Amino acid sequence: MVDNSKLFEKYTLNNKVEVPGLLVVAPMTIYGSKPDGTYGEEEKNFYKQRATGIGLYILGATCVSQEGFSFENQPRAFNDNDITHNAERAKIIKG
C-alpha cells in the first residue's frame, strides 16, 4: 500500500509562509462571479465543495485594471470594495 500521509503534513515555502499540506489547486477560471466582480453563490459553492483538505488554493483570472477584463463577470482587484470581496473568497476557501 502507498503511504500518502506526507501530502497532508504542513510545509513551509521559501518565503516562510506555512501551508497545511502539499495538495495545491492551480489557478482556473470558473465564471462564477457576479457582473460587478463580487463572488456569487455559484462561486461560493464551488470553493466550499473543493477547498477542503487543500494546502494551497490559487485563485485564477483576477482582473487588476478596469482596462484588463478578459471575460464577463471576471473577479477583480482594483479598488477597496474588491479587497473586501477577495478577502471573503479567501475566508470561504480557508473554511
Q: Provide the residue-averaged pLDDT.
A: 88
- Low-pLDDT runs of 5+ residues are none
What portion of residues belong to β-strands?
5-15%
Radius of gyration over all CA atoms, rounded: 15 Å
Q: How would the blueprint of this fold be written?
A:
Layout: E1 11-12, E2 18-19, E3 24-25, H1 41-50, E4 56-57, H2 80-94
Parallel strand pairs: 3-4
Antiparallel strand pairs: 1-2
Explain this structure.
The protein has 95 residues and is an alpha+beta fold. The chain is 26% helix and 8% strand. It has a two-stranded antiparallel sheet.
Keywords:
26% helix, elongated, alpha+beta, 95 residues, two-stranded parallel sheet
Short description:
The chain has 95 residues and is α+β, with helices and mostly antiparallel strands. It has helices spanning 41-50, 80-94, and strands at residues 11-12, 18-19, 24-25, 56-57.
